[in-house]
């Protein structure tokens, strides 16, 4: 259709990828066996001591099957849809008749709640039927519709069943009859972006071009004057404050936006939809806008953990280099949105900078959002915690030092479930006779290259070990290129094929070692990525991190916890020449590599009762400290935590 689409990589379908062992297999098992069943119980209000969801009950009321009032957030339907999407990905990899039966029953309920004209939103069906489509800014109608569409596509691809897909198409048809540039239609767009990327998914699975046109319309219209939100507010007798324009990403038309502004989750979903529409329509201007936005996020507005959105006010980006550690927001959903954006950019431009950020977010800010038992969650992902301040300082009240079993606003838990259940889609991509390996995961992929069946098997203990063995098993000898990402954090990489080391310096392309040869069944590649412990410094413009370092090994960011190092972590300083010792502790935090070193702790002697002193004599006492992976913090006794450590 166009140049962008012609050169685009194609992710390999989830059914063709099996995560067979290692780090991520624990998460795959956890999502299937614990998280999905637990969240199902929560959605049905059957877990004592957690905020009531009301989500399934709302659908029963909307379907006329029980009496009651709508309860929960205006976007409560989306929790069910994201849970169904997670179920779909799980079923694609791990068929489960009992789970599929439950999903079918939920789908039947959703279908019964849908109105005759295709409309489907339990809040408006139950509570305000006369106010549909009157407050796009705040109502989340299009956001919920997007999550319904994503669930429908995922379930169809996993099971071949079309009932939910038919529901989604009827709703999308209804939306298409309401919105657009044509006379008599509303020229609106969503307050919370999401439907843009969902409609492209629907177009790809149905081939119905009106869904692509509608997605493109929502993107093209955003930010055009007069702003629809202002028009809409006047019609409601409401006020529109121009200062909120950037919060909703309507301060400028999308092609003119050069910095990431406003609500971080909305922004990441919008940018993902922009990439999708650009690919399908050949719109290079959208791609250029996305690249500028990407650069702004990743070079000026992203935490070392891959978290984005530094302010609790508006859950938003603020300004370049404003990255506070103890009042940070870094919503789990925002990190997930960044993974979506990174993955899409990687397909149109196979550059490791996108894969590196995708990996950074996955191993740090994403999985820190869920406890190791799969049943408790962080909404906010701080880089520094002082529990007493979280409890008593209202500025830090949004920061929690223990994960919660659920939330009144529960967007993050099912979002985590759907991403982790679909992780297989993010490991590999294919284009013509090239197979790209983006993530190093103990896994097996079955695909076609030049119409020939090829199986590729990864064996690795990554991220704890930098050794990756890749076995090539084509059905016959086959000439193709295997592209291996050499992460940006890796300072020394060695590649050998069948025991013979090859020089990769001449075959590097945007961070990928591209090995082109005639592959034979049983060929074996060994990739060795050096995993030294690294001291990372922040740009000097990040004032909060001045004089501090973060510890990283491989893709994993590390932190100090009070449980290992005692209170007052801020008194610990790292000498510049200290030596790090890496240990794998199989019985700690489900098995992790920890990092230990000799550091120093400031000693102020007997301070007395004074609040302030002059001429203080500070001494330093040696102390052995232990770093644990950031993603695993807050899984033991509550206490302080710190990522950025003072350097002596």
Automatic annotation (TrEMBL):
Domain Non-reducing end beta-L-arabinofuranosidase-like GH127 middle: 435-531
Spans through the membrane: none
Domain Non-reducing end beta-L-arabinofuranosidase-like GH127 catalytic: 16-424
Classification via Gene3D superfamilies: 1.50.10.10
SUPFAM superfamilies cross-referenced by the UniProt entry: Six-hairpin glycosidases (SSF48208)
Boundaries of every Non-reducing end beta-L-arabinofuranosidase-like GH127 C-terminal domain copy: 533-646
Matches recorded under PANTHER family: DUF1680 DOMAIN PROTEIN (AFU_ORTHOLOGUE AFUA_1G08910) (PTHR43465:SF2)
Designated name of the protein: Glycoside hydrolase family 127 protein
């Amino acid at each position: 259709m166009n140049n962008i689409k012609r050169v685009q990589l194609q992710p390999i379908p989830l059914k063709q990828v099996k995560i067979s062992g290692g780090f991520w297999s624990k998460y795959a098992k956890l999502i299937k066996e614990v998280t999905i069943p637990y969240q199902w119980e929560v959605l049905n209000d059957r877990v004592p001591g957690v905020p009531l969801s009301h989500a399934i009950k709302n659908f029963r009321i909307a379907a006329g099957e029980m009496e009651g009032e709508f309860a929960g957030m205006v976007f409560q339907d989306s929790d069910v849809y994201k849970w169904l999407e997670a179920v779909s990905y799980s079923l694609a990899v791990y068929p489960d008749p009992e789970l599929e039966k439950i999903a079918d029953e939920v789908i039947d309920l959703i279908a019964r709640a849908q109105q005759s004209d295709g409309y489907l939103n339990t809040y408006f069906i139950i509570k305000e039927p006369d106010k549909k489509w009157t407050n796009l800014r705040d109502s989340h109608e299009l956001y919920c519709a997007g999550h319904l569409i994503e669930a429908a596509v995922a379930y169809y691809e996993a099971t071949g069943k079309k009932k939910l897909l038919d529901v989604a198409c009827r709703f999308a048809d209804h939306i298409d009859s309401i919105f657009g540039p044509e006379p008599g239609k509303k020229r609106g767009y969503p307050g919370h972006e999401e439907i843009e990327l969902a409609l492209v998914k629907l177009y790809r699975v149905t081939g119905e071009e009106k869904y692509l046109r509608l997605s493109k319309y929502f993107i093209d219209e955003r930010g055009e004057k007069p702003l629809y939100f202002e028009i809409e507010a006047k019609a409601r007798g409401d006020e529109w404050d121009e200062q909120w324009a950037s919060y909703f990403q309507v301060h400028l038309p999308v092609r003119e936006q050069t910095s990431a502004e406003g609500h971080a989750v909305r922004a990441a979903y919008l940018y993902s939809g922009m990439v999708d529409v650009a690919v399908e329509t050949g719109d290079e201007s959208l791609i250029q806008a996305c690249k500028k936005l990407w650069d702004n996020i990743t070079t000026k507005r992203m935490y070392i953990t891959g978290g984005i959105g530094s302010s609790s006010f508006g859950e938003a980006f603020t300004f370049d280099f404003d990255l506070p550690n103890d009042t940070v927001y870094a919503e789990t959903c925002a990190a997930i949105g960044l993974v979506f954006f990174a993955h899409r950019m990687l397909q149109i431009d196979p550059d490791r900078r996108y894969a590196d950020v995708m990996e950074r977010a996955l191993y740090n800010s994403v999985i820190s959002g869920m406890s190791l038992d799969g049943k408790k969650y962080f909404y906010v992902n701080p880089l520094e915690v002082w529990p007493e301040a979280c409890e008593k300082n209202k500025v830090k009240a949004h920061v929690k030092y223990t994960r919660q079993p659920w939330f009144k606003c529960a967007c993050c838990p099912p979002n985590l479930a759907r991403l982790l259940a679909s992780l297989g889609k993010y490991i590999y991509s294919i284009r013509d006779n090239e197979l790209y390996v983006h993530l190093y995961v103990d896994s097996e992929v079955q695909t076609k290259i030049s119409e020939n069946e090829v199986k590729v098997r990864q064996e690795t203990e990554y991220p704890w070990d930098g050794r990756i063995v890749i076995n090539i098993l084509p059905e016959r000898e086959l000439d193709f290129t295997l592209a291996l990402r050499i992460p940006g954090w890796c300072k020394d990489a060695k590649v050998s094929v069948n025991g013979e080391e090859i020089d990769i310096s001449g075959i590097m392309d945007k961070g990928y070692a591209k090995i082109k040869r005639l592959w034979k069944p049983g060929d074996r590649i060994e990739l060795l990525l050096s995993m030294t412990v690294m001291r990372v410094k922040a740009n000097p413009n990040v004032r909060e991190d001045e004089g501090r370092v973060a510890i990283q090994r491989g893709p994993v960011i590390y932190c100090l916890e009070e449980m290992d190092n005692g209170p007052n972590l801020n008194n610990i300083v790292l000498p510049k020449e200290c030596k790090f010792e890496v240990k794998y502790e199989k019985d700690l935090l489900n098995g992790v590599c920890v990092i230990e070193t000799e550091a120093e702790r400031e000693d102020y002697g007997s301070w007395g009762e004074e609040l302030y002193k002059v001429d203080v004599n500070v001494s330093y006492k040696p102390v052995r400290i232990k770093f644990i992976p950031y993603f695993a913090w807050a899984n033991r006794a509550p206490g302080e935590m710190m990522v950025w450590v003072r350097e002596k």
